[in-house]
C-alpha cells in the first residue's frame, strides 16, 4: 500500500459492503472467534497486536474456506484501572470521590468513558481487524448486566455465595481487595529479624524470625512445628509480646516451616494468610496493626499513622533498645505487589463476598480434555490449578463496575449481615416492598462492586445474549477459537471454563491458544516504568499495517516468549515492506508488461511450469496445515520463501525467455499467492487483486470482487 489513507479506504469499503458481518441465519457452517476485550483505558501494546493479528488471520482464512465467521469484539470496563485513572484526573481539579459523592462521581465516570472510547476505538481497528463491529459488547452494558444478575442470583440460590471476614490481598493504593493471581512478585533484599519473646514466669526465651517487626503489635500466638528440638517444652506456656506486653499462647502446628528461621513462628492472623488459617483452627483473635491505607493503626501506639516502611525501622529500633533482637540477617525474598500499580500488597482481614469454587472446579476437571490447548502443556497447568483452587473474593471497594445486587434493611439489619439468619432480611431485587422481618422499608444497596472478572468470565455466553436463548448463542457457542496471554490463564481462562460448564453445560471454546509474553532483549516484560516497550502503532505509521503484521506473525509461535526491541522490529518490518514492494513489482511485470499475443489458457506442460506448480501445491498444503495447526509463523515463512525465491528469483527470471507461453502460469501462480497471503497481508493483497479487475486501479467497487470472498486455494 502507498499510505495509511489507502489502507483506511479499503478498510472502510470492506465495512461498507458488510464483509465482516456474521449471519446467524446463514446455511454455511459457523466458525466463531471471541476477541479478548481490551481495557477501556489501555493503549495497544505488542501483546494486543499479536493477538489481533492472529485472530484476524484465522478469521479471514476461515471465510475463504466457506465458513460463516463471527469475530466478536468487546471492551472491558477495567474497574480498578479506570477508576484510578479518573481519580487522578479529578485530583487535578481538586476533586475526589468523597467531595463528589457516588451519583455525581458516576456521572463523571460515564462522561470520561465516552471520551476515552472515542479515541480508544480507532486504535483497535488499525491492524485491519475484520471484526463484526456492530456486535461489539461493553462489559457494563445492559446485556452483560442482565447476565451478571442471573449469575449472582443462581450462585446465591445454589449456596455458592457467601459474605464474611476473611484474609484477602489488599492494595493500599487502589484501596481494594485483589486476587492472588493479580499480584506479581519482586525479589527484594530486606532484613530478617530474630526476635526474643520472654516466656512468662521463667527466665527463658523463644526466638522467632520475621521480616515484618511492625506487625508484632498484632501477634496473637507463637506456633512451633511438632516435636521441635528446642521449643516443644514451651507448648502450652505463655510468651510475652516484647512491644506491648500482650500474653501470647505457645501452640504446636504442623504448618510451621521447619527450615525457616528458628522453626517457631509468630502468629499474626490479621496480616498473613497462613497465620489466618492457623489462627482460625486454634480459635485465635484477629488484630490489625496496618490499615487499608497502608499505615499503622492505633494498635501500634506511637507508630500510629506511619507508613509501613518507616514503621518497620522504628519497630526494629524499639526492639533493639529492649534487647529483644537476637540477630539480624540479610534476607532476599519475593514480595507481592499489585500488578497494576506495583504497590506492595497488604494481607488484611476484610469483609468481602466470596464464591465457593470447589464445585465449579470439580466439573471443569471432568471436561478439560474436551478443549484443545495450544501448547499442550497448558492442559496440565490449568488442571493443577483447578485441583488446588480456593474460594474467589468477588467484591471490590470501588464505584466503577457492576454494583453488588444485594439490598439490606437498615431498620433491622444495620450491620448488613448475610446468611440464613431469619432475624434479618436481604433482597436480590431492588426492593420497593416492605421488609418481611420488621415491616420497615428503609433499604440500602451493598456499597461494593463486583470484581471485573466476575462479568468477564461470562464473556463466552453473555456476549451472545445469555440468559436468553438467542440464535447467536445457539449457533456460535461453544466458540471455535480463543486465545490469551499466559498471565491471565487463571484469572480469565480457567474461570471461563468453570462458568461455561456451570451455566451452559458445555466448554466455552474448542481451541485455546496461548501466545507468548512479549519481552525485551533482556527477557524482561515490557512496561512503561522500564521504558522498554514498543508501540505497534508507531510501527504501523512507519512501515504500514501489512509489514507490521508479517513481523508480528514471525513472533507468534505458540507459547514461546518473543524477545524484541524497536530495532529488531524495525528490521523485520523493513524486510516485509520490501516483500510488499516485491509483490508490487511482480504485479507490474506480470500484468503491466504483459506481452502481446500471450497465451490465455494455461497449459502447464513445460518443465518449468510443472516444477513451479508442484512447488506451489506443496506450499498450499503446507500453509493450510500450518494455519489449521495455528503455526502462523511457519505459514508466513513458507509463503515468503516460495514467493521471493522460488517464484520471483527463479521462475519469473526463467519465464522471460518464453514469456508469451509462460503468461498463464505467471498469472495463476500470482493470483494463488495473493489468496494464500490474504489472511496475513490483507491490504496489499486486496489492492493487487482489485487492480487485476479494474484495469490497474485499486478500487473496491463491487463487494463480490473482493479477495475476501474468493475460495481458499486447493492443490
Features:
single chain; 715 residues; alpha+beta; Rossmann fold; Isoleucyl-tRNA Synthetase, domain 2; 4 domains; seven-stranded mixed beta sheet; four-stranded antiparallel beta sheet; 21 helices; 23 strands; elongated
Explained architecture:
Helix 2 links the parallel strand 1 and strand 2. The two termini are 29 Å apart. This protein has 21 helices and 23 strands. It is of the alpha+beta class and 715 residues long. The strands form seven sheets. Strands 7, 8, 9, 10, 11, 12 and 13 form a seven-stranded mixed sheet that branches. The longest helix is centred in the C-terminal third of the chain and has 27 residues, at 566-592. Helices cover 40% and strands 17% of the residues. The protein has four domains: 29-76 and 134-160 and 361-396 and 452-515, Rossmann fold (3-Layer(aba) Sandwich); 177-347, Valyl/Leucyl/Isoleucyl-tRNA synthetase, editing domain (Isoleucyl-tRNA Synthetase, domain 2); 406-445, no CATH class; 536-709, Orthogonal Bundle (Isoleucyl-tRNA Synthetase, Domain 1), CATH 1.10.730.10.
Topology (SSEs and partners):
Blueprint: H1 4-16, E1 30-34, H2 46-64, E2 68-72, E3 74-75, H3 79-92, H4 97-100, H5 102-124, E4 137-138, H6 142-157, E5 161-171, E6 176-178, E7 183-199, E8 205-210, E9 221-224, E10 238-240, E11 247-252, E12 264-267, H7 273-281, H8 308-321, E13 325-338, E14 346-355, H9 358-367, E15 372-374, H10 377-387, E16 392-393, E17 395-396, E18 407-409, E19 426-427, E20 443-445, E21 449-450, H11 452-456, H12 459-462, H13 471-476, E22 479-484, H14 489-504, E23 509-514, H15 536-543, H16 545-553, H17 566-592, H18 607-628, H19 632-655, H20 659-677, H21 682-693
Parallel strand pairs: 1-2, 3-4, 9-11, 15-23, 22-23
Antiparallel strand pairs: 5-6, 5-14, 7-8, 7-10, 7-13, 9-12, 10-11, 14-16, 17-21, 18-19, 18-20
